[in-house]
Amino acid sequence: APRLLVTELSLPRVDGFGFLEWKSTQAREDLRIIPVVVMSGSDLAQDVKRAYKLGANRCIIKSWTAPHNLAHVVSDTLIASGLMLTTFGQSSDGAIYAADITGGLYKLAAQ
C-alpha cells in the first residue's frame, strides 16, 4: 500500500473533494489510514476548510509553496503520520531525499 497520497483539487473526472469523500467512506480500511496531501491552485479558505473536513492531512496552495518546500511538506506529513523517520537530506547534486522506516530512499525534489 502507498505511504502517502497526493491529489489535486481540480481533476477532470473525480475532483480532489470527491476523492477525499470516497477515501473516507468507501475505501478499504488499509487505504483510509494513508495520509493525504492536497494540492490546489485555489487559495479560497472555503476550499481548504472543506479539504481538511473531508480528511486531508495537509493542503498546499501552489502559489504559496515554492517547489523546494514541497519536499518538506511531504516529509513532515509522513513523519507526523508515523510513516517515516526523520532521515531527510540533500545530496551533492542538490536533490532532496527522504528515507522511510523500511529503508526505502525517495527522491522528493531536484534543485
Detailed description of the structure:
With 111 residues, this protein is α/β, with parallel strands linked by helices. Helices cover 33% and strands 23% of the residues. The chain contains 4 helices and 6 strands, in the order E-H-H-E-H-E-H-E-E-E. The strands form 2 sheets. A 3-stranded parallel sheet has the order 1-2-3, sandwiched between helices. A 3-stranded antiparallel sheet has the order 4-5-6. It is globular. The mean pLDDT is 76.
Summary?
The chain has 111 residues and is an alpha/beta fold. It is 33% helix and 23% strand.
Ordered list of secondary-structure elements with their pairings:
Blueprint: E1 5-8, H1 16-25, H2 29-32, E2 36-40, H3 45-53, E3 58-61, H4 67-80, E4 88-90, E5 96-99, E6 105-109
Parallel strand pairs: 1-2, 2-3
Antiparallel strand pairs: 4-5, 5-6
Main sheet makeup: 3 strands, parallel
Indicate the overall shape: globular
Spatial ordering of strands, largest sheet: 1-2-3
Round the mean pLDDT to the nearest integer and report it.
Answer: 76
Features:
111 residues; alpha/beta; three-stranded parallel beta sheet; three-stranded antiparallel beta sheet; 6 strands; 23% strand; globular
